[in-house]
Amino acid sequence: xxxxxxxxxxxxxxxxxxxxxxxxxxxxxxxxxxxxxxxxxxxxxxxxxxxxxxxxxxxxxxxxxxxxxxxxxxxxxxxxxxxxxxxxxxxxxxxxxxxxxxxxxxxxxxxxxxxxxxxxxxxxxxxxxxxxxxxxxxxxxxxxxxxxxxxxxxxxxxxxxxxxxxxxxxxxxxxxxxxxxxxxxxxxxxxxxxxxxxxxxxxxxxxxxxxxxxxxxxxxxxxxxxxxxxxxxxxxxxxxxxxxxxxxxxxxxxxxxxxxxxxxxxxxxxxxxxxxxxxxxxxxxxxxxxxxxxxxxxxxxxxxxxxxxxxxxxxxxxxxxxxxxxxxxxxxxxxxxxxxxxxxxxxxxxxxxxxxxxxxxxxxxxxxxxxxxxxxxxxxxxxxxxxxxxxxxxxxxxxxxxxxxxxxxxxxxxxxxxxxxxxxxxxxxxxxxxxxxxxxxxxxxxxxxxxxxxxxxxxxxxxxxxxxxxxxxxxxxxxxxxxxxxxxxxxxxxxxxxxxxxxxxxx
Length: 507
Hints:
Blueprint: H1 4-13, H2 19-24, E1 28-34, H3 37-43, H4 48-54, E2 57-63, H5 66-75, E3 82-85, H6 89-95, H7 98-109, H8 114-128, H9 133-151, H10 153-166, H11 173-179, E4 183-186, H12 193-204, E5 209-212, H13 218-221, E6 231-234, H14 237-245, E7 254-256, H15 264-267, H16 272-279, E8 286-291, H17 301-314, E9 321-326, H18 347-353, E10 359-362, H19 379-389, E11 390-395, H20 400-406, E12 411-414, H21 433-437, H22 440-448, E13 452-454, H23 457-469, H24 475-486, H25 493-506
Parallel strand pairs: 1-2, 1-4, 2-3, 4-5, 5-6, 6-7, 8-9, 8-11, 9-10, 11-12, 12-13
């Protein structure tokens, strides 16, 4: 591999590539990194892209799914927005190295949260149950380095600085040379592997960086970032406090902006008639919403759905209800038909056994192409509409707790798995739903009093009946949860983010 410093020496010394001259140039390109559909949801399926364009900036999409993004933009009439392929081959080579994984795991496990501590215990337990002596030695080393990193922020600072120096590449030299962006926007602070590398590359080219935190759990679950973001956009004050207190980020570079794709929950929801018609649900029926968990880590999705439908047919208190069951997107990542049979689950057969008067399965519309988890524009308003018209939401410690609370709807969190199904092999402890229950961000939700946690089918049944009987019971707690975890910017977040980016580029 060529020395990245040698490769870029001409760039760093060429005054044409300085930040000042770039800002004064006529064409102010801004790079936006999109690695998967959730990033596209933030930047492309909100008002952000349009606002940046109207301001005079020239967005250039750096993406691992150039074909999907190009087709999407063309269909939206945005042919003028350039798309550049994100080169990650060199990253993948580095990720296989011993020292890369050493630094990665230190950043992941050194964060002072219950989640990081529990994950380290699980990984270490798994390593010592393995016959591979090298893996055992590796995690002994990891554990020691993690303890050192936790002693004082200065240790973590130098560990990250060393990692950023060693694992600096110039894989996307062509992108920076041809587009010369005045800033680069990412959807993480470097807690995701590719974003960590591209943030380093941006610094190599003296390009300022802006990082939006992709999801509400990232600041407590994903470990330390790479401390290279010049501006960080957080969901809420809670997330801001985690960035300051856990990640040692200076408050001055953090702006609370909310959640842009939640703006649609105030702007573009369907009517009840439109929603019911699209799902073939009789208008006189009421809805119970069940959001499934990834079948990779949770094996009771179908059992829960089947059990609730049995209650609907046998319990007089539930006879007016239909269960709307939304399948997790991972069902369709590698096999995009609607059977889910690659997880030993036959949702089609379950649907055929019942009628739309009892069960309706919602299949997320995923765009087939080279970008994983890229959903159609209709998915955000459709999900919001389901939440709005459902009387209760059932899930397994997901953002649905927040989203249902936006609509002031009762939520129930399931904290039990299928006792008949034993998860075997690697990291079996990690796939215990009770581990999820104890995660830092989920404990905040539980302690807020906004949701109900159940540990058995009997508790689930009684909690459903209780919530339907008294839906306003936890209303104030749900309101506080939304304000704490999503901010008060719902409906305005896209505009706040766009304005923040524009002001950053002009400063």
